[in-house]
UniProtKB/TrEMBL annotation:
Residues 1-28 form the signal peptide. One of its GO terms (biological process) is amino acid transport. GO terms for molecular function: transmembrane transporter activity. It comes from the Bacteria. This is Branched-chain amino acid ABC transporter permease. InterPro entries: ABC_transp_permease, BCAA_transport_permease.
């Protein structure tokens, strides 16, 4: 019964390798400009107890963006009192340490201001862009940018902007769908609303980053495959971590007859525990993988598309298709659907229910881990990356219909694309709010979700 998942996992590993080898080749085919990696990159986060404002000032009218040197920046507290100043360096970056310890600054709001008189001749910022408010809600360094001019592809109308945002929405939706599919499978077979699912996403990102940071590089035929190996390791190690979760915690609770509400509360405690463990080992600062961090985009008319985005999308879609086929046409997939519909009847018909649940945990957690690793590849990550998108994962699952694989994927694409396109009309800081409003409206009209009665787990 386990032979099918092994074959599918092997095919998935080969697919990841093949697709990201193409991505590595594509990156090598478009070499970055001299010094491109160093230009307009945020300074590294500090490891001391103070919180720093890390920033950069770049001229987006140049390709690639060029740093703007000699600009004076001031940080003021909520009372308007200056607490620090800095001048952007040759690489366009600046760093201002806030006074006091990180704990003493939690909950405070600071204003970062640009001295307009120090901007180079021929450059300017809109009045609304000359100052930014920074709320200190976490005890890690805060990043901020002051871009000058319009980014390439943004000087046209709303139509082109919408297409560019649609591309970003699709990439994010694919990763959200992988995480939502794993959550939906686990809920469908066990009834567990797992609030620690966000930490399973983070776990995959941390595993991939750990492999990526090992000394040396893994090369085959002159192509650097370090990140490829890191992603494959994240997939399989996350699956093993999911099996360990079930064997050490959830299976004993099921055997004792623990109710789903009590198990949900346990998952909240597990989430808090894992999040603190991740912070202890990985720190609070953001991390980026060594490869695919500064890939030159392809220009398709007015639209910009990076090889990284294309490869991430291909790998994600391949995973979604592979798991869908596994659930539809294999013995373990049919057994999974049977357990989801009626565990007692499935057990009486000879199906090993605990074995099926273990396989579901392995596959669901492997999907979540790979989703986190790919999400970290596209935008970097910190120890809270899974926690930050957990609400969106739940929204996707509930919107599509609890326990349905198709509902999880449809809900993820609706949520992912909507939150990106909504930034055409609302501030980017509110885009998640818009997605949750859509969720509320849909559930008021159709409480079971869009595909809630269509099919149960497959």
């Amino acid at each position: 019964m386990l032979a099918c998942p092994r074959r599918v996992a092997a095919l998935i590993a080969l697919a990841i390798t093949a697709f990201l080898m193409v991505g590595g080749a594509a990156q090598a085919a478009v070499p970055p400009s001299s010094g491109e990696n160093a230009k307009c990159a945020l300074p590294p986060a500090s490891d001391d107890d103070a919180i720093s404002i890390l920033g950069r000032i770049c001229d987006r009218r140049d390709t690639p963006q060029s740093p703007v040197e000699g600009v004076e920046i001031t940080v003021e507290d909520s009372a308007g009192k200056p607490v620090g100043t800095a001048t952007s360096g040759a690489d366009g970056t600046f760093e201002i340490k806030l006074p006091g310890s990180s704990v003493s600054n939690l909950g405070k709001t600071f204003v970062v201001k640009v001295n307009e008189d120090t901007l180079p001749e021929g450059t300017s910022l809109a009045k609304s862009d000359l100052e930014r408010k920074v709320a200190i809600n976490l005890d890690n360094d805060q990043s901020i940018t002051f871009p000058i001019g319009e980014a390439p592809g943004q000087s046209t109308g709303k139509g082109v902007q919408a297409l560019q945002l649609l591309i970003g929405g699709i990439v994010f939706s694919v990763l959200l769908a992988m995480a939502a599919l794993g959550l939906s499978m686990i809920f469908g077979t066990t009834g567990l609303t797992n609030f620690a699912h966000g930490e399973l996403i983070t776990f995959g990102a941390i595993v991939a980053y750990t492999i990526d940071q090992l000394p040396g590089a893994i090369r085959i035929g002159g192509v650097n495959l370090t990140v490829v190996v890191a992603l494959i390791a994240a997939f399989f190690i996350s699956g093993a971590f999911g099996w360990l979760n079930d064997a050490a915690l959830w299976r004993p609770l099921r055997r004792r007859g623990t109710g789903v509400i009590a198990m949900m509360i346990v998952s909240i405690g597990l989430s808090i525990f894992l999040r603190n463990v991740f912070q202890f080992f990985s720190g609070a600062q953001s991390h980026n993988y060594s490869q695919y961090s500064a890939v030159k985009p392809w220009e398709i008319g007015p639209i910009l598309l990076t090889p990284k985005e294309l490869m991430v999308t291909i790998v994600g879609v391949s995973m979604l298709v592979a798991v869908s086929l596994l659930l539809q046409f294999t013995r373990i997939g049919k057994a999974t659907r049977a357990v989801s519909d009626n565990p007692a009847l499935a057990s009486s018909s000879g199906i090993n229910v605990e074995r099926v649940i273990a396989v579901v945990w392995i596959v669901g957690t492997a999907l979540a881990g790979l989703s986190g690793a790919l999400l970290g590849l596209t935008q970097g990550f910190d120890y809270q990356i899974g926690f930050k998108i957990l609400l969106l994962v739940f929204a996707a699952v509930v919107l599509g219909g609890l326990g349905t694989i198709w509902g999880a994927m449809v809900g993820a694409f609706i949520i992912g694309i909507f939150i990106e396109l909504s930034t055409l009309f609302i501030p980017a800081e509110l885009k998640f709010v818009g997605a949750l409003v859509v969720l509320i409206v849909v559930l008021l009209i159709r409480p079971q979700g869009l595909l809630g009665k269509a099919q149960r787990v497959g």
